[in-house]
């Protein structure tokens, strides 16, 4: 007799699997994990294992895991190594899908809950992805376009955003167009950006693709004003002609006090392995509940029983798409995905408003000091309303690569922006303090 998967779990017995998982050091709730006093910024910095030889001003690129996240990854890893089958079957809620007795909440649901609390939405509005790149591809590929539809985007977005648009547009016979919201980043102005977007929306525009904080210039978009302009353009349009706003949120998500769900966008994708400090290889998509029905999933999901049950019964799922159906399936580096919850908890314990204020203060200190150096030009707006955690600058007479190389020789980790027009970047963040900012600026002064 061959056993199918449902019979197999039933025959082995859930209690056996559950106890096997329980023996392997189940994760403890994050709130009870540490008695650190995060009111002290040095205590926050001490959570990171960054090499002290270097001044790390590129933490926004890829994260160093803070201690609570490292500890959670380690706990999940031990569970998985002790009993991979039981841990995945139990932790992913597969046993519950199969009608077996379940533990309390599946680990991905805990992640959705933590993410939703942080971003101001609901757990069932959050899909789990691997990165911003994956999220954007799932959104653009999942939307329905017809020949003649237009995707309007800007010249300021990252390669992965433009590629996600290009691939989706080519497949569907849609067109796409880029506009500049500003010319010189240092002179970017909110009203001008709104007017340019408003003027560019055409009769066939179906999507506006934006990026919250541009990693090529450091400009932060006035998101509320921009989404308001799109809402006005939608006022006399029918549901099928509505212009949707898709946001690459990655460089605002984790350094702003504005909840993502309050920006007025229709879909937002963000890697959580940058400013959120979640494990490398993690990200989310957030969309208000009503919008999920607009997406066709691209990758079979393991995060909901409905598509699986429909497949077993030999028909497509009957209800509209839900967020969990868009979380790509296939087995994952689960210790990383499940430990995402601890990163949101880390932010909650420090405080979103405090984090935003701290990053703004360090960035203002850095920009003001850089701007005071002769032969250095700060390209990112000085105004915190139009900038976030990334500072682009140029040193007269030096290429960005030279500047970054010379900073490296002085133990400062800066970066160049990966765009056709490239700039040197410093990104003061929670891993830095005022003295480190002074030291980085001193190094730039020496080079200039
Ligand atoms: C604006 C922007 N979007 C997307 C990405 C890609 O992010 P991910 O690694 O999460 O796919 C980057 C890269 O750092 C970026 O700067």
CATH topology of the largest domain: Aspartate Aminotransferase, domain 2
Named once each, the bound ligands are:
pyridoxal-5'-phosphate
Number of domains: 2
Share in helix: 40-55%
**What structural class do you assign from the helix and strand content?**
alpha/beta
Residue windows where pLDDT falls under 50 for at least 5 positions: 1-25
Overall geometric form: globular
Give the full name of the CATH homologous superfamily of the largest domain. Answer: Type I PLP-dependent aspartate aminotransferase-like (Major domain)
Strand order of the largest sheet: 2-8-7-6-5-3-4
Number of helices: 18
Strand content: 5-15%
Average pLDDT: 92
Layout of strands and helices, then pairs:
Layout lengths: L4 H8 L1 H10 L17 H5 L9 E2 L10 H16 L1 H8 L2 H4 L9 H13 L6 E4 L2 H11 L7 E5 L4 H14 L2 E5 L10 H11 L4 E7 L11 H12 L9 E5 L18 E5 L11 E4 L18 H9 L9 H4 L7 H5 L1 H11 L1 H20 L4 E3 L12 E5 L4 H10 L2 E2 L1 E2 L7 E3 L7 H14 L1
Parallel strand pairs: 1-11, 3-4, 3-5, 5-6, 6-7
Antiparallel strand pairs: 2-8, 7-8, 9-10, 10-13, 12-13
The protein binds pyridoxal-5'-phosphate.
Note down, in words, how this protein is organized.
This protein is an alpha/beta fold and 448 residues long. It folds into two domains: 125-349, Type I PLP-dependent aspartate aminotransferase-like (Major domain) (Aspartate Aminotransferase, domain 2); 351-447, Aspartate Aminotransferase, domain 1 (Alpha-Beta Complex), CATH 3.90.1150. Helices cover 41% and strands 12% of the residues. It has helices at residues 5-12, 14-23, 41-45, 67-82, 84-91, 94-97, 107-119, 132-142, 159-172, 190-200, 223-234, 305-313, 323-326, 334-338, 340-350, 352-371, 400-409, 434-447; strands at 55-56, 126-129, 150-154, 175-179, 205-211, 244-248, 267-271, 283-286, 376-378, 391-395, 412-413, 415-416, 424-426. The strands form three sheets. The chain has a seven-stranded mixed β-sheet, with helices on both faces. Strands 9-10-13-12 form a four-stranded antiparallel β-sheet. It binds pyridoxal-5'-phosphate. Pyridoxal-5'-phosphate binds at residues 61, 131-133, 158, 160, 211, 215, 248, 250-251, 271, 283.
């Amino acid at each position: 007799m061959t056993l199918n998967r449902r019979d197999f779990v039933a025959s082995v017995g859930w209690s056996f699997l559950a106890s096997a998982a329980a023996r392997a050091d189940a994760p403890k709730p994050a709130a009870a994990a540490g008695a650190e006093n995060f009111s002290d910024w040095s205590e926050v910095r001490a959570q990171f294992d960054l090499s002290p030889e270097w001044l790390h001003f590129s933490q926004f690129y890829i994260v160093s895991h803070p201690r609570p996240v490292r500890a959670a990854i380690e706990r999940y890893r031990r569970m998985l190594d002790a009993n991979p089958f039981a841990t995945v079957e139990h932790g992913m809620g597969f046993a519950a899908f199969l009608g077996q007795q379940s533990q309390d909440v599946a680990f991905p649901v805990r992640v959705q809950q933590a993410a939703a609390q942080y971003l101001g939405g609901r757990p069932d509005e959050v899909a789990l992805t691997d990165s911003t790149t994956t999220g954007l591809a799932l959104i653009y590929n999942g939307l329905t376009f017809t020949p003649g539809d237009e995707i309007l985007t800007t010249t300021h977005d990252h390669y992965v955003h433009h590629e996600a648009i290009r691939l989706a547009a080519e497949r569907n016979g849609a067109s796409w167009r880029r506009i500049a919201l500003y010319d010189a980043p240092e002179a970017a102005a909110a009203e001008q950006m709104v007017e340019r977007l408003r003027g560019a929306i055409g009769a066939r525009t179906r999507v506006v693709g934006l990026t919250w904080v541009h990693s090529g210039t450091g400009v932060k978009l006035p998101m509320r004003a921009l989404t308001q302009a799109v809402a006005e353009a939608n006022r006399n349009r029918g549901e099928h002609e509505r212009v949707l706003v898709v946001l690459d949120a990655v460089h605002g998500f984790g350094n702003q006090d504005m909840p993502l769900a309050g920006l007025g966008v229709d879909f937002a994708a963000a890697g959580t392995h940058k400013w959120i400090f979640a494990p490398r290889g993690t990200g989310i998509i957030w969309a208000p509940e009503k919008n999920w029905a607009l997406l066709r999933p691209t990758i079979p999901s393991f995060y909901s029983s409905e598509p699986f049950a429909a497949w077993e019964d030999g028909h497509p799922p009957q209800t509209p798409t839900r967020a969990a159906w868009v979380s790509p399936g296939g087995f994952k580096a689960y210790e990383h995905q499940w430990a995402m919850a601890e990163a949101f908890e880390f932010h909650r314990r420090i405080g979103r408003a405090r984090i935003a204020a701290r990053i703004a203060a360090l960035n203002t200190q850095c920009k003001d000091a850089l701007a005071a150096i002769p032969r250095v030009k700060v390209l990112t707006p000085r105004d915190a309303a139009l900038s976030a955690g990334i500072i682009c600058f140029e040193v007269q007479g030096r290429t960005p690569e030279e500047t970054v190389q010379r900073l490296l020789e002085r133990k400062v980790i800066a970066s160049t922006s990966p765009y056709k027009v490239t700039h040197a970047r410093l990104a003061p963040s929670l891993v830095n303090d005022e003295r480190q900012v002074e030291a980085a600026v001193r190094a730039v002064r020496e080079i200039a």
